[in-house]
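Consider the following assembly input.
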Amino acid sequence: MGRPMSRNLLGAGYKVVVHDIAPESVENAVAAGAERGESPKDVASRTDIIVTMLPDAADVEQVLMGPDGVLEGAGRGAIVIDMSSVSPIASQKFSAACEGKGVDFLDAPVSGGEPKAIDGTLAIMVGGRQEVLDQALPVLQAMGSTVTLTGPVGSGNVTKLANQIMVAGNIVAMGEALVLATRAGVDPEVVFNAVRVGLAGSTVLDAKAPMVYSRDFKPGGRISLHEKDLRNALHTAESFGVPLPFTSMAQQMMRALINTSRGDLDHSALVQFTEQLAQVEVKKG
Amino acid sequence: MGRPMSRNLLGAGYKVVVHDIAPESVENAVAAGAERGESPKDVASRTDIIVTMLPDAADVEQVLMGPDGVLEGAGRGAIVIDMSSVSPIASQKFSAACEGKGVDFLDAPVSGGEPKAIDGTLAIMVGGRQEVLDQALPVLQAMGSTVTLTGPVGSGNVTKLANQIMVAGNIVAMGEALVLATRAGVDPEVVFNAVRVGLAGSTVLDAKAPMVYSRDFKPGGRISLHEKDLRNALHTAESFGVPLPFTSMAQQMMRALINTSRGDLDHSALVQFTEQLAQVEVKKG
């Protein structure tokens, strides 16, 4: 995700200093016009707005608060925008650490995946103070088509977790529906065309049902990352004493697929959980 | 549903003979220009195409195969179109009974609910033979905007069950997402607006999220009828040896709400299951 996002920042005329543990990602960004940062600390000492996009909270903690981290380099008044999808509780912790150094913090996770990162049309869900967002807005608008302030720090990730629960629901139910239809002898493509215009219609159905019955599970959104989001949703829910039976079930289904080496498939491959239970494969007739 | 459907048939110029166990429904249709049928048998003896729209398979069986039923009155070459949402196994049984009398049968359940029944824009999912559908098509087109032949008898109801599983998934996950967001202090209307344009977008989300955070659960689609559909999906799945963990969970959630007198609420009120677990109410801020 960082690669297309940095390209869009360069395209909008920003000076961009990049760092990544994968050298080829840095080379790629440098070839596109970015400057090389030696460490998160080095990047932060050379920029006013520091954007992080990482797999999970442990990575963000390391990059912000670890040795040679962002907070060793960032000047007072700098803004850290963490665009990773992490637990909102982690966002609040990062914000407090930034505040201790006079640095402002926004959590700003995104929806839309790599295709919308490339197009610069991500949906960006922001948590933080309005006046901080006002300063960061042009940078975010270079990467996304909608930027929504959802509340104080952590709210962006609460909204992202809500988003991921809904996407999981739409995928799990689509999988069970297509498995039942296939097993009962109805072509899944016929089902798709009959129901997509009605109340069952969804962005997931339009984007993912053809992937399922064409057996094309190239990601898109990976099962391993979606599982992480649901796990974060369950941890967050637990901290509020909120039981989420469906989310829990969906996370366990994803976990089972990760355990059988399917974590890097698109999350539409969640249909394989039900297929395995039913011993049937959803394929167009 | 029968009332607006008969009005649309009258509007398309058909002679319509009606029967219902609710006298006010018959009076209403007669006032709109229909003829009164004394029994299903009487209706069948006066028409070539007999349409049934009933709560579940036991009602259809009574109307078709019971005393004074359709099959006592229908002539050879008549067509029975059962537009009820029932188990596909039941549809196959009704078809066999019709065949024994030289009567053709289509299962043709619908999606869209009363609003689309009134507009004549139902999505109609048909199971049966192409040449029977060819004869019945103008009648169906007077009630629906899309008429899809999905396969042999029973396929219409397989498709409808698949539809209802997907709608249930979208509703259950939306409920958990909004409960978590609300409990974590984010306004559910803000969440709705932030995510509806992304991968979480769906017809359910657009139609039902505002009902949830406005606390308006006037149906629309009733929990009691949706529960029946999921129960039929589970029976059908069981007949094929297909486990459907999500569908089973959703059916049980709906059953719990029926047990606490909420079966007549719109199915978006399924959010109340999670609200009760979490002791929180989803309301806009």
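Chain A has two domains: 2-151, 158-278. Ask yourself how this observation constrains the way the partners meet.
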